[in-house]
Amino acid sequence: MSSLIRNAAPDDLTGLTEIMNEYIVDFYKNPSPSDNKVQHLIQTLFDKRQGIQFVLEDNGQIVGFATLYFTFSTMKADKIAVMNDLYVKEAYRNSELESRLYLACINYCIEQGYANMTWITSVNNNRAQSFFKEMNAVQGKDWVHFSIY
């Protein structure tokens, strides 16, 4: 078994589109965005200015991905990264490969000098919450998350 975690590249467009749709529609039960929208998002991340995407490849197939978006924190007066996505196919959950994908995000943020990496997960995603706690992540208690659609 040959596995690799690497930056997403233009040749990954089709595979990333497929796994991102699996994540959006099958896992989170959201409406399917058009392939054009998903592919535009992926292509935006190739230049690594607004964010970056990592892929988990196993035996030549994309079986997971993680997305970091770059922004700033007034409280830290510094740049931060938001891990918007960390997704692996079911067979890879709670595996060393999932841990390595998560650690690739952390290492990238450290190497690039980000003040921190933050993220949210669904209140119902108990498996992810357990995974993050096992990885020594600290659950926020000081802020209430709001959004508007």
TrEMBL record:
<dbReference type="InterPro" id="IPR051016">
    <property type="entry name" value="Diverse_Substrate_AcTransf"/>
</dbReference>
<keyword id="KW-0808">Transferase</keyword>
<protein>
    <submittedName>
        <fullName>GNAT family N-acetyltransferase</fullName>
        <ecNumber>2.3.-.-</ecNumber>
    </submittedName>
</protein>
<keyword id="KW-0012">Acyltransferase</keyword>
<dbReference type="Pfam" id="PF00583">
    <property type="entry name" value="Acetyltransf_1"/>
</dbReference>
<feature type="domain" description="N-acetyltransferase">
    <location>
        <begin position="3"/>
        <end position="149"/>
    </location>
</feature>
<dbReference type="InterPro" id="IPR000182">
    <property type="entry name" value="GNAT_dom"/>
</dbReference>
<dbReference type="GO" id="GO:0016746">
    <property type="term" value="F:acyltransferase activity"/>
</dbReference>
<dbReference type="InterPro" id="IPR016181">
    <property type="entry name" value="Acyl_CoA_acyltransferase"/>
</dbReference>
